[in-house]
Write a structure and sequence with these properties.
Length: about 100
């Protein structure tokens, strides 16, 4: 009985810790998710920077990384999430829900 309570308390603490961490500073993965999410409907770089809460220097590091991996494309100064990027966002959401619920 005591071990079950301890196990539940540990799971609750871990879950709460992860939830708090997601509210704090974003990691690289979260930044990439934010960029891809803003580019779903097609955006210019300035709009992407503001909506994803980035600065231009940081955006300049992440955009080529995402383009090289086929997660986002740039056509005539408009950035758009590709089908592969949409799949990535879907999988990310599923994993996030698994760990945070």
């Amino acid at each position: 009985m005591a071990s079950i309570l301890l196990e539940d308390a540990m799971k609750d603490g871990l879950s709460r810790g992860l939830k708090e961490r997601f509210k704090e500073r974003r990691g690289k993965l979260e930044i990439m998710v934010d960029i891809l999410s803003t580019a779903r409907e097609g955006v210019r770089k300035t709009e992407m920077v503001y909506k994803a809460n980035l600065n231009f220097n940081r955006a300049e590091r992440y955009i080529p990384f995402l383009e090289e991996r086929g997660l986002m494309e740039n056509a005539e100064a408009v950035y758009q999430t590709t089908e592969k990027g949409e799949e990535f966002l879907h999988e990310y959401q599923m994993i996030k829900e698994l760990f945070l619920t």
